[in-house]
Design brief:
Elements: E1 11-15, H1 20-31, E2 35-40, H2 43-55, E3 60-64, H3 70-84, E4 89-92, H4 107-135, E5 138-143, H5 147-150, H6 156-176, E6 181-188, H7 194-200, H8 204-212, H9 222-233, E7 244-247, H10 259-264
Parallel strand pairs: 1-2, 1-4, 2-3, 4-5, 5-6, 6-7
Helix pairs in contact: 1-9, 3-4, 4-6
The structure holds coenzyme A.
């Protein structure tokens, strides 16, 4: 799908890059030649991830970083520049979330999610954005969620944070467009990871109900979302900024055809690339 070596001279920093979607994005960019820095609060997530990236031939480093702390974000940039000379791509993937009815949410619970998922994105955007502006080029890709505009029952804190990130994305995209810095977002639907399986569909009935809400009738593979991050980071994509790219199998548009109709028309199984 992408030319080998497309990111050969590029340095990509991925927050929350040790696991899940962040790791998939690191792998996808690294396989195309980018040198990778993954950041996370947890050294335990980072060490195996760096080893796995190295095993697939990707040059990668890890920097333990709490994005809530501007000093640690500044250190992340310093370490990246010390190691690789500069940064070109920032993927803001780190987040924190838990399900909680809003009336039961404590001020501390609200604050911790806003601090990670919104304030953290501001800190990295501000710090790396200044670096990108100084070098006259850079790419930022933020990871948001469709509940930023639909609302997220049980995740009001996270929905509010993601709505804020979309506003931040569009604001800086316009501010920095003429200065070589592209700022976009990907908006994944439900993707299949062990964490999602545990939290979102612990039972077969919940899995079936969720699949029923997705016109494509399947969950995304993390690689399908990572591909969109690659697209928005790609040096040849030069006329897209301030965009929020939804990759949710059509879920935000409404349910697909009911099962009995879709199977009679032969479209119940959507194609999935197995190499993703
Ligand atoms: N339900 C209700 N409140 C919760 C909660 C839950 N499951 N988890 C945390 N909180 C509240 C705590 O009660 C506390 O509030 P208080 O100060 O008013 O008592 C506040 O949040 C901070 O909790 P703490 O445990 O100190 O936060 P933390 O920084 O250790 O972790 C998260 C908070 C959200 C990051 C944590 O849930 C986490 O690590 N989640 C896994 C990673 C993740 O969510 N990834 C994102 C996938 S989209």
């Amino acid at each position: 799908m992408w030319k080998d070596g497309a990111f050969q001279d590029q340095v990509a920093v991925i927050t929350g890059g040790g696991t899940g979607l962040g790791f998939s994005a690191a792998e996808a960019l690294g396989r195309l030649g980018a040198r990778i820095v993954i950041a996370s609060r947890s050294a335990a997530h980072l060490e195996p991830a760096v080893a796995a990236l190295a095993a697939s031939g990707v040059t990668a480093r890890a920097v333990v970083t709490d994005v809530r702390k501007p000093g640690e974000v500044a250190r992340l940039l310093e370490r990246t520049v010390a190691e690789f000379g500069r940064a070109d791509i920032l993927v803001n993937n780190a987040a924190g979330n838990f399900l909680c009815p809003t009336e039961d949410l404590s001020p501390g619970g609200w604050k911790v999610v806003i601090d990670i998922a919104l304030n953290g994105v501001f800190h990295t955007t501000h710090t790396f954005g200044r670096h990108f502006l100084a070098q006259g080029r850079g790419r930022i890709v933020n990871v948001v969620a469709t509940y930023a505009w639909t609302g997220g029952p049980g995740t009001a804190h996270s929905a509010a944070a993601k709505a804020g990130v979309i506003a931040l994305t569009r604001s800086v995209a316009v501010e920095w467009a003429s200065r070589g810095v592209f700022v976009n977002a990907v908006c994944p639907g439900v993707f299949d990871t062990p964490g999602a399986r545990e939290r979102l569909w612990p039972t077969e009935a919940q899995r079936a109900a969720l699949l029923d809400d997705i016109p494509l009738h399947r969950f995304a593979a993390p690689g399908e979302i990572a591909n969109a991050i690659v697209y928005l980071s790609h040096p040849e994509v030069t006329y897209v900024t301030g965009e929020v790219l939804v990759i949710d199998g059509g879920m935000h548009l409404g349910k697909g055809l009911p099962g009995h109709l879709s199977s009679s028309t032969g479209i119940s199984e959507s194609p999935r690339r197995d190499d993703l």
